Amino acid sequence: MAVSISYDETRQVIPGNKYEITWEVTSATDIPPEIFVLKAQNTDVNDSDEFSRVAQVGDFVYPTSPDPLSAVFYRQDTVTVVYDDIDTAQKQQTAIRANIAALADAYEAEVTAWVGSDSITVP
Fold first, then answer.
1. What are the DSSP E strand ranges found in 66-120?
2. What is the mean pLDDT of the segment spanning 64-91?
3. In degrees, to the nearest 5, what angle opens at C-alpha 93 toward C-alphas 108 and 62?
4. Whose CA, among 19, 25, 38, 43, lies 20 to 30 Å from 2?
5. Model pTM?
6. 37-43 — which CB contacts under 8 Å span 24+ positions?
7. Which phi-psi region, left, alpha or beta, contains residue 78 (left: φ > 0; alpha: ψ -120 to 50)?
8. pLDDT at position 47, please?
9. Percent of the chain with pLDDT over 70
10. CA 106 – CA 61 distance, rounded (Å)
């Protein structure tokens, strides 16, 4: 097993002198591509949902689309985040890149630890 995640990262300055970054998973091997966790705001418009974090291994139980009746969080393969200043944007860009790499490592380690067989003897 060799978990890998490829993604595009698009950066731009938007009106109001804000800094926008979009991450989009373009390929995922041995891991679901929906690695961005969003918090549903219980409205009919997904535009108001908030980016929460890059998924951790335990987050893969969340659905891949918002369900206002049952799920507070859901996962998607694309996320756009707007930052008020370039310093915060740059720090978060670095952190998110590191979190994506850490997710790939943790997911592979978790699956590798699970796969196998055991011989058990009970007295």
1. 73-76, 78-83
2. 90
3. 45
4. 38
5. 0.86
6. 37/62, 37/73, 37/74, 37/75, 38/66, 38/73, 38/74, 38/75, 38/76, 38/79, 39/72, 39/73, 40/66, 40/67, 40/68, 40/71, 40/72, 40/73, 40/74, 42/68, 43/68
7. beta
8. 61
9. 92
10. 16
